[in-house]
Every structure is written in structure tokens, then in C-alpha cells.
Amino acid sequence: MVQAPTLLLIDDDADDQEIFSIALQNISTLIRFVISDNCKEALEKLTKDKMFKPDFIFLDLNMPGMSGSQCLAEIKKQKRLKHIPVIIYTTSSGQRDKEETKKLGANYFLTKPTDINKLITILKKILSGEEKFVEAQ
Predict the structure, then answer these.
(1) N or C: which end of the chain has fewer CB atoms below 10 A?
(2) What topology is assigned to 9-58+68-126 in CATH?
(3) Where is the Response regulatory domain (predicted)?
């Protein structure tokens, strides 16, 4: 039996957290879903709790304090974490953000869809491996 994946969402917006959670519940109730409201909290959990190693990290770019780009750079510096796929999950659709996060090691750039059904479809593809994304260096 294949173990259900663990996802970490790093996003400060409660509405976006809820929409993401509902989308995941529509895919499978077995998915382990952890939310961090900011990058500092997420990095503490990822570095201090050696038992916690998510299968995917979904990361918003626009957050107070440490930005998503800074957080991505910190994640990719960690030997234990650098191979975890990081999916940028943001309202931005700017080419500059896409290029910057790709250079920092993001595996996929997902502009937050306005329709939950689109989000469900994209998440299914990512989780099933059907959606191919760039392998980070």
C-alpha cells in the first residue's frame, strides 16, 4: 500500500489556507496536510523536527516578514530538505517572479486559480506525478 503524501502549505492568508484544504479533501482524506502561517514558523518546524519531512512544499511568495523567495532559498540550503519539491503557490503571475524562484530552486510555479475545481485538477496532477515539473538543482 502506498503511503499518502504529506504536504506543507506556507501561506499567511486564512482564506487561501481553507480553499487549499478543501481542495485536498476533495482529492483524498488520507493526505496529511500541515499549515504554517509564515516562513519563520515553517523553517523552525522543518529544521528542528527531524521526523517532519513533507513530500511537497507549497509556498506563497507574498508574506510579511520573510518573503517566500527568501524562505525558498533557506529550504534549498538545507541538505535534508533540498530535494523536496517546492511549488510556488501565489497570486503573482509575473515572469520576474517565475524566473527568480526557478533560479532559487523552485520546482513548479502555480498561480492561485480563482476556481477551486481548477485547483483540484492541478493538485491531482502534481500529486499523481502526471504534472511534470522542473527538477531543482
Answers:
(1) N
(2) Rossmann fold (3.40.50)
(3) 6-127
